[in-house]
């Protein structure tokens, strides 16, 4: 066998050949097959063998032999499944059409020349039918047509005009079109024609100068089951359809059902993404014409907002977090951290709109330091609040008249003005660029005003002077827009990050209070000619054309910055050094000189926030190790601003032998969007999971340095965390609570909870190990630690309230009156995982008494529940609780808790449910358990497109393979409204909670009741459920795997 990559099931013949190779000392890699993928792999294996066997059959009547052979296989399959056998007729015949009846008799359906069963590639080769002629036939024979085009020209659309008119004239062929305003290429006449077709709808993405939609696709749905799709390079224009050198892949449902299902699901998800695609109508024609004209002229002057005023999903996640902070944690001073240009002001406007709905008379103050920011923010608020008279400016001589909704500059709110304002004058206060908050004017404002809600917005919570504005926000960040989300939304430009091998050895430098000793660091980085030459060499290697480069280099000190500037100037690269001591005039001049290209690089010290903001920057050099992740991201953000013509940011990070306490994994986690525990695997696999358009590459030696650092950090981890808890105990003069420790250090759960053999150890045992808590001997420590360690998913609602009360000292009788019995059963199975009867209990409430015999673990349970509130990503709809099944919509529960709530786990029995569905006939209830990632593999195309969200209100679900549309189960699904049956949907991402020390199953989010919308196919049925409550934005992002990057 040839060396290389394979993906082939091992049969007896192959195993023998592999054994021979291994005998010859050749390395052979085998992996176990994931059970979720095995059916697909086996069918692919059998398909090739069957084709080979059928071809080799010969004789007087080979066709009869082949049909007989096929019938024997069908009979064997029927015997295995218990179904009636299928049988092919001889001689073989093929059904090609059942023509529809029209007023003039039967309509003639002409199939495309490429057929309906076999996928093919059209390249414009001499023997290929033209794309236009094939599309014409596909249109005329389809039952529904979906079109996805980045732009549409009349020169191409008129070629298909007759076919579209004929198809839609039948009145039963819906047409849906998705397109964009990118570069103004789409013509308004095309939108008018398409939207005028009977049963047609057109939706537009208003991408004026940059688009995420480059796709060109057609989907032709047929009720016969022979749907087809075209995906390729051809937009709808005359050259693209007729004469261009275009490649287009035709996919058929018959031979590529998985691919076609992904196309179908992706289109459906785009179609339902209301914040991206807006319906077109004649009423919007004038506005669309203006946008198209502006796009053609590349005019960036207008900042008009789209027609729709819904938050994007990533913005809704921030709003959800703010709601949790206020409603669950009682925190009304909230800090939102996000890079410049990511729409922080828009989030504030949506948040105030929500606040104003409950308090229509709410007063409002928005504070910023520049008139331009205030004017732009006022415009956003008026649009989102749908109130063109909202707000007054208080800046540059303009004073408000009514002083109810004010947009004020910080300069206007001087001491005299603040003294005249009542501290309670404004209900809701927003302070933009709150990192200025340590300045006297801002500090006075923050200490004077007492609003109901204070919202701070910043890209840079950590300042160059070491001060941190979080002190005004309960010492925490309420919500943060992740880097990958902003890039996926085109709010920031993509980065190309290169880890460059650095000769400097940092391992023995002094490390104090989380950072290098600055003097030692500057000493090893200055006067280092070898390293300086390496910096220049790397720059020229990764940016060979320096004519268009605009860069920032981050240095450790003034001497280092000046040395780098001198080095670059001598190399013919115009540069300058800046520090916090540089005057404002010099800084402003440098910004203009960099933007114009007069200077190529500015080397800075401690100017990562308000000191330098140049959108033209397209290259960042990290010339010193940056210990703080926050500061690293702030510095990176200086180059991520969008600008016309800027396609990406180049990042050169110089990676040497790093100190064992330096944290590489967190920065690579922030860049990649992957959790820190996965970073080693991401490095080894070449970072396959990155935000759109981004690249991370590590040079060979740099890669070795990073991996060595991560492995050493793992070995250092536990000792380091024990030191942290000792330090915190000394500062507080008592052991920290679990939530306090998490807020301060964000440790992975695997540090605090672990399994040693069959013994489970938790937070209180960790404190004992650190020597800050006395040893204890709770009788049920091992069992309860395992239960408590699985409760991080609980956030709010009556059930967590019961657990909190059980750990307290409320009378048991009082608890029995406040909480339903099934919630006691939920709590029991969460803590003990066996029936109350088997434990010798006589009534379920005795589980409270058993728990309270473990006082230390009761305290730990309370602390875990408080932490869970802190970590909640979205609010629970407690008011939506069903009467007989005590679950809160959007609450998170283990399978045992759900089964106890549904009555399947009782006092003396438990019904194990391993399938993805469970029917509870006595309750007229179906429980639909959905695991989004069915395979343990990171990417499994054969299983990942079965269950997914189409929108926050629609969910695509695939039934079990034995469920047919005419079976009792299928009929119950379809007609559940009429029969009074309820369908409850539960969602989780994976089978196992990632990196959990106890290897526990991942809990489910209760998405709430769902209702039948439609279905396709049978055995399995592909169903669309309509949700009673919209999915939280975070859960939608997790489950909308086919849509626009959210």
From TrEMBL:
<dbReference type="Pfam" id="PF00271">
    <property type="entry name" value="Helicase_C"/>
</dbReference>
<protein>
    <submittedName>
        <fullName>Helicase</fullName>
    </submittedName>
</protein>
<dbReference type="InterPro" id="IPR052511">
    <property type="entry name" value="ATP-dep_Helicase"/>
</dbReference>
<dbReference type="InterPro" id="IPR001650">
    <property type="entry name" value="Helicase_C-like"/>
</dbReference>
<feature type="domain" description="Helicase C-terminal">
    <location>
        <begin position="538"/>
        <end position="702"/>
    </location>
</feature>
<dbReference type="GO" id="GO:0003677">
    <property type="term" value="F:DNA binding"/>
</dbReference>
<dbReference type="Pfam" id="PF04851">
    <property type="entry name" value="ResIII"/>
</dbReference>
<dbReference type="GO" id="GO:0006793">
    <property type="term" value="P:phosphorus metabolic process"/>
</dbReference>
<dbReference type="GO" id="GO:0004386">
    <property type="term" value="F:helicase activity"/>
</dbReference>
<dbReference type="InterPro" id="IPR006935">
    <property type="entry name" value="Helicase/UvrB_N"/>
</dbReference>
<dbReference type="InterPro" id="IPR027417">
    <property type="entry name" value="P-loop_NTPase"/>
</dbReference>
<dbReference type="InterPro" id="IPR021835">
    <property type="entry name" value="DUF3427"/>
</dbReference>
<dbReference type="InterPro" id="IPR014001">
    <property type="entry name" value="Helicase_ATP-bd"/>
</dbReference>
<keyword id="KW-0067">ATP-binding</keyword>
<dbReference type="GO" id="GO:0005524">
    <property type="term" value="F:ATP binding"/>
</dbReference>
<dbReference type="InterPro" id="IPR025202">
    <property type="entry name" value="PLD-like_dom"/>
</dbReference>
<feature type="domain" description="Helicase ATP-binding">
    <location>
        <begin position="325"/>
        <end position="479"/>
    </location>
</feature>
<dbReference type="InterPro" id="IPR001736">
    <property type="entry name" value="PLipase_D/transphosphatidylase"/>
</dbReference>
<keyword id="KW-0547">Nucleotide-binding</keyword>
<dbReference type="GO" id="GO:0016887">
    <property type="term" value="F:ATP hydrolysis activity"/>
</dbReference>
<keyword id="KW-0347">Helicase</keyword>
<dbReference type="Pfam" id="PF13091">
    <property type="entry name" value="PLDc_2"/>
</dbReference>
<keyword id="KW-0378">Hydrolase</keyword>
<dbReference type="Pfam" id="PF11907">
    <property type="entry name" value="DUF3427"/>
</dbReference>
<feature type="domain" description="PLD phosphodiesterase">
    <location>
        <begin position="209"/>
        <end position="240"/>
    </location>
</feature>
